[in-house]
Amino acid sequence: MKIANFSILLLAFFIFPITFAQLRVGFYDNSCPNAETIVQNLVSDEFESDPTITAALLRMHFHDCFVGGCDGSILLNSTDSERFVGPNLSVRGFELIDEIKAELEAQCPSNVSCADIMALATRDSVALAGGPSYNIPTGRRDGLRTNANGVFNLIGPTASVAAFLSFFGDKDMNTLDAVALLGAHTVGVGSCDLFQDRLVNFNGTGLPDPSMDSDLVANLTTICEASENPSTGLDRSTPLTFDNAFFGQIRVRRGVLQLDQRLATDEATSSVVAQYAADNDLFKRQFAIAMVKMGAVDVFTGEDGEIRTNCWAFNNN
Ligand code: HEM
Ligand SMILES: *[C@@H]1O[C@H](CO)[C@@H](O)[C@H](O)[C@H]1NC(C)=O
Ligand SMILES: *[C@@H]1O[C@H](CO)[C@@H](O)[C@H](O)[C@H]1NC(C)=O
Ligand SMILES: *[C@@H]1O[C@H](CO)[C@@H](O)[C@H](O)[C@H]1NC(C)=O
Ligand SMILES: *[C@@H]1O[C@H](CO)[C@@H](O)[C@H](O)[C@H]1NC(C)=O
Ligand SMILES: *[C@@H]1O[C@H](CO)[C@@H](O)[C@H](O)[C@H]1NC(C)=O
């Protein structure tokens, strides 16, 4: 029994990438000293014309990290990529990553990974939207496979708070981290089909979800009837600003997604929600901490993986 366990441990050691102490702030200081500035300038240009890029990058980075690690595999555009699977939902922002990659290849060929570009660009876009500025360790390598089926392991918007906490707990993130990360819904939109049932026929009752403010029910009903494939802000107060208003909104029953609303009342998360709602700086600090943790999930470092030359394809060698 002991021997069997030991070999499982050894096996695990070789199969799974080592995820700690390998990333470091300033990884490109010597090999590509302008890397972070180049990323920041291009993100900043994009943000000026399209401030929704913050939401796009946050969601892309989250999906990448939780499907086979933060390895840039969501960027691959082969037909079997995780990018093209149902629950990819509205992931977008690929063009900006490709544009940044092209500029970095021109300046320091084959040095800066697509996985790092995504982490850095996301960080910069958050700051531009009013969120925290923070250092992010780099040194990620790009993965050598894509895991389309893994997309189905992401939990959905009707998940329970317990499932939500264990989803993040499995990656060593605690309640403070998990709630802060869901606070990313302070920017961005959700499609009506993901919460339509809350407006008209919640849980088969033929009535709206009683946990949703009735003015919001009326507001969302109008918005969702107004166009085809409608979507609308997840933070009903300041959907383009990275702030704690999302937490204030869910505390007054103005959450759009069911899981978002549940955080405000579930006894495991309600006090953290109240703290973030009361203290924007606390939320932003904890968000930065949690993003550094999320950005280190199952990363490839050292000699593992590769540095892609195009983010949309594996290198052919
Ligand atoms: C694990 C729990 C989570 C669930 C169930 C969830 C669910 C969702 C859903 C259903 C949408 C709407 C998508 C659509 O309409 O196509 C959405 C959007 C979004 N999510 Fe999450 N999410 C979770 C965690 C996160 C995390 C950890 C982040 C980032 C740190 C994040 C960032 C975003 C952003 C920024 C949007 C808006 C995207 C846009 O406007 O393009 N989410 N999320
Ligand atoms: C992937 O994207 C590149 C660059 O946009 C494009 O040239 C290529 O045709 C795409 N491949 C597939 C399979 O969509
Ligand atoms: C998401 O997957 C669907 C197929 O299920 C695909 O049609 C769509 O283009 C994908 N979205 C993106 C942004 O690639
Ligand atoms: C990039 O990486 C190569 C080897 O992978 C190295 O020789 C080179 O000095 C690095 N730096 C730049 C700026 O290209
Ligand atoms: C949905 O309805 C079932 C019984 O019809 C009930 O057991 C369950 O708790 C309800 N769920 C919610 C979220 O209200
Ligand atoms: C819905 O509420 C938002 C503010 O949260 C407001 O800007 C918008 O005009 C409202 N739309 C409708 C149709 O009531």
UniProtKB/TrEMBL annotation:
Ca(2+) 2 binds at residues 186, 235, 238, 243. GO terms for biological process: hydrogen peroxide catabolic process; response to oxidative stress; response to stress. The active site is at 63 (proton acceptor). Heme b binds at residue 185. GO terms for molecular function: heme binding; lactoperoxidase activity; metal ion binding; peroxidase activity. Its EC number is 1.11.1.7. GO terms for cellular component: extracellular region; plant-type cell wall. It catalyses: 2 a phenolic donor + H2O2 = 2 a phenolic radical donor + 2 H2O. Removal of H(2)O(2), oxidation of toxic reductants, biosynthesis and degradation of lignin, suberization, auxin catabolism, response to environmental stresses such as wounding, pathogen attack and oxidative stress. These functions might be dependent on each isozyme/isoform in each plant tissue. Belongs to the peroxidase family. Ascorbate peroxidase subfamily. Belongs to the peroxidase family. Classical plant (class III) peroxidase subfamily. This is Peroxidase. It comes from Brassica napus.
